[in-house]
Amino acid sequence: MEVLVISKNTIKPSNPTPSNLRHFQLSFLDQINHPRILPLIFYYPLGFEDNSRATNLKRSNQLKKSLADVLTKFYPLAGRVKKNLYIECNDEGVLYLEAQVNCQLSQIIGQQPINPHVELNKLLPFDRLNDAGDVLLAIQVTVFKCGGMAIGMCFSHKIADGLSTSTFANSWASAARAGHSNMVCPRLDSATYFPPRDMSCYNIKTGMTEEKMVSKRFLFNASAISTLKDKYANEIQPTRVEALSAFVWSRFVVATSDQVETQAEADVEAETSITKLYMLIHGLDLRMRMNPPLPESYFGNFSWVVMIMPRRAAASPWPPAGPLHIPSVSCIFQLSSL
Question: PANTHER family in the record, alphabetically (predicted)?
Answer without folding.
Answer: F21J9.9
